[in-house]
Amino acid sequence: METLQNSGTEVKYSDITEYLNDNHIAPDSVDNYELTESSRSLLDMVGANHSIKGQIVSIFYKDLDREPILDNGLPYRRIRLSDGAVAQGQPKYLSPAGSSNHVYIPASFKSVYESTTKNSIFITEGEKKADVACGSGIPCIALSGIYSWASSDESTEKHIMPELSDLIKILDVDTVVVIFDSDGDLITKDEITATERKLLKIETLSSGKFVKNAKVRKAAAALATAIAKDTRVKVAHGFCKHIITEKTDGNVKHLKAFVKNGLDDWLISNKKDVLNFLQYLESKAELPAVAKEHVSVAIGYEHQDTDDILLIYRKDLDSINRAKSTSLRTAQALRTLIGDDIEKYRVFSEDGADKFDVTGAHAEIYKACMNAGHTSTSRLNKEGGLWRTADHSIVLNTSKSLYRLEGSALYRIDRVLDTVGEKEVFPRPRNEYMDSLAELAEYPYPSQSDVCASVTRIINNLQAFNFQTGSRFTPHMILAWIASQVYCGLVDTRPHIYISGEMGSGKSHLLRYVAHLLKGNALYVQNTSNTTLAGLNNAQANNATTCILDEVELTESDKNHGVESKISNFIELIKAAYSLNGLGFNAIKGTQEGGYRDTGARAGFLFASIVKGKIDRAAESRIITVPIDNRLADSKDVDVTTGLEDGKIIRRFMLSESVYQEFMDAQRKIYGGIRAERKSMTERDATTLSYISAASVPLYSYFAEGTDMSKNELIGIAVRNMLDIFDSASQHTDMRHEGHKSLDILRTLPINVQYETNGSTQTKRMRLKDVVVEAVKGDVDAIDSLALHSMYIYKDAQGSCSLCLTRASDENILKKSKINMDQIKLIREVSTNHLKSGKIFYKGNRYNVQCFIPLRLLENED
């Protein structure tokens, strides 16, 4: 539709207004068109042949504020030659020699854009097309050519010129639609024959469809992609509707002809169709995957036989993916490993088919993983909780994000850290109970009054429980232990608390309250008796958090099947969690052999049981026993839900570099004070007491700020009271005492023995140990009496005698023996670990387990 001078005539435009009207541009809508005659100076500027004659239209480029765009110090313009010059082989448009690419902004563009309700702009190729579009209410800008958008840098990857990216940012654009001429529009087989395609020079695409100019199609896609990658806005691209007509001469039809259709032509012929099509393109605009932030990070490699295992961290999944190097030979395998990041390896396809440079992708991924260094998934185990990084900073890993602790502030950072030359990965915690930890990270640091109020409420609630330690400091010790649980991933020592008491003593209520105080920081198991060690391990995973275990008991099924190791295995697990090594606890697999496997978890344990005597001697230095009396007064009135907010305040207070340093200083000083006060105490006992109470110093120092109480006084209070609690706890956890007590009960069990004397029967009440001695001698009456109690004397090949308890896995049968399985277990523990007289052993099968107690064990009082 555009004309400058009718070909074959000498008619000229009288002024620029006539030219604009002829090209369907309202003269009052533009300020940058100029009509002149061809001149030597003008032709020199564009490097054109001096022989060019006729009228020339200059189109000046201006910015949003209608200030001239300068290029080499001069206002930039492009010139449109006359049709006569074009007919003689000259190009239609010329640009100044040595000039750069610029964006053409119509004079009415800004007002049209501001009048729309959407933050969308359209880009076409050709200045007058943009002016006609703006005149139709379409906020459109233009390029001088299909590839006149790239910056002049020498990078292999194309970027849009700064003028275009700046314009998108200034206007706060969120959608860009590229609309190029119809020679990029697809043509189907039904529209044109093979002969016609050849004559009209129609190009064939790999999809079997056709296009007049594949370069136009490729340029539109490339521009949309570059805009999306450089500005992160949604994009779409399309083409004006192509027109194929038939030439006729009377009744004779001739070959078809392809008529080029630009945006201005299409608007003039069918504005409604154009507006509908542009609206459709706008609606399907999106941020392509190639423009999205890369979500895959190479973290290293492992060796496996002759192949390398590549390790990739996927941000979108918060997971570590693994793949054999040799398996990455297809696009699907690559997509499984790196997700949408495969788009960066997409190879252009005219028809949009999925094609990727698989070889190049494999080479880059392999190189990146090799450069990241040798590693293994077993050490990438820092999931939920507070951790120290390789560069000694502190991070909090939550399900929402990873945070770096700086002072008392928490800042979001990437989950993959490149510290001291190696990658550190902190995967998203897999456990639902960790979700609340993300709320703690966003919680503001508490004021002194907030901490004071929360400490007061917690202590008042804990004091409602009737602890039998003989020390008023016990609630404060439990609060200090709770506060320190945020440091499970930072410290090498994690002491534990065992709550012992009869049914109704308030153990479960106490554990529920602590679980609320530690919500997000603790795995809470209400019925541990129905939990396996493997299940506990999977639930805890690789988190630096607390385990709160209620009802650590044997089930009836355990008792019926003679399972005696379950609770002791739980104790082994808890003991290992204390460990000074970096791994944390070992968890038993679900196997009969009781095999172990390492995990990365670091946990402090709070657990409860109604059965005394579950803790062996080796665990005493890791676990503080806190008994509760079953005659309660007020603990049932404790509202556990108040712990949610108070616990959040206390834990957020502890999330401070200065508070952590104060905690560690207090631990060292309490340890030193305990060793000085009690020189006979073992190093591990002193360490346990110091770590379990250390948080009381920063808490009460902050709480009591402004008073006369110094930190040294707080440390002295902790030392004295922890020794009192330890002395009381030792009375409850000394398994030798408990084992001896059960053994004494067995020895002194009253047995009625019936003797026949002078034709009459007499009943003699004897101790079991005495009856056993008589039975060994062959006394028939003693042997019969033992049988009435489901017992008999067993003599082995060496002549050693033992008392046999029949059906020792059957509680009903044991009742006849006047002893229960827990007492047998205690006797076995004390005989195994502390006595020289002999050890309890078992024989039989699961249906008839027999327990053998050596005679020496009954006779000796060691």
Number of strands: 37
Q: Average pLDDT, to the nearest integer? A: 82
Shape: elongated
- Would you tell me the structural class of the helices and strands? alpha+beta
Biggest sheet character: 5 strands, parallel
Round the Cα radius of gyration to an integer and report it: 43 Å
Strand content: 15-25%
Distance between the termini: 116 Å
Indicate the low-confidence ranges by residue numbers.
3-11, 580-600, 732-737
Give the strand line-up of the largest sheet: 26-27-30-25-31
> How helical, in percent, are the residues?
25-40%
How many DSSP H or I helices? 29
What labels describe this entry?
862 residues; alpha+beta; 5-stranded parallel sheet; 4-stranded antiparallel sheet; 29 helices; 37 strands; disordered N terminus
Describe what is shown at a glance.
This protein has 862 residues and is of the alpha+beta class. It is built from 29 helices and 37 strands.
Task: Give the helix/strand layout.
Elements: H1 16-22, E1 33-37, H2 40-46, E2 55-60, E3 70-71, E4 74-75, E5 77-80, H3 83-87, E6 93-94, H4 109-115, E7 120-125, H5 127-135, E8 140-143, H6 162-170, E9 175-180, E10 186-187, H7 194-199, E11 203-204, E12 210-211, H8 214-231, E13 234-239, E14 243-249, E15 252-259, H9 263-283, E16 296-304, E17 307-314, E18 319-324, H10 331-338, H11 358-372, E19 385-388, E20 394-397, E21 402-406, E22 409-413, E23 416-419, E24 422-425, H12 435-441, H13 448-463, H14 474-484, E25 496-500, H15 507-517, E26 522-525, H16 533-540, E27 544-549, H17 556-560, H18 566-577, E28 586-588, E29 596-598, E30 602-609, E31 623-627, H19 643-654, H20 657-677, H21 683-693, H22 696-703, H23 711-733, H24 735-747, E32 750-757, E33 760-767, H25 768-776, H26 780-788, E34 791-795, E35 801-805, H27 811-817, H28 821-833, E36 841-845, E37 848-854, H29 855-859
Parallel strand pairs: 7-8, 7-9, 9-13, 25-30, 25-31, 26-27, 27-30
Antiparallel strand pairs: 1-2, 2-5, 3-4, 5-6, 10-12, 11-12, 14-15, 16-17, 17-18, 19-20, 20-21, 21-22, 23-24, 28-29, 32-33, 34-35, 35-37, 36-37
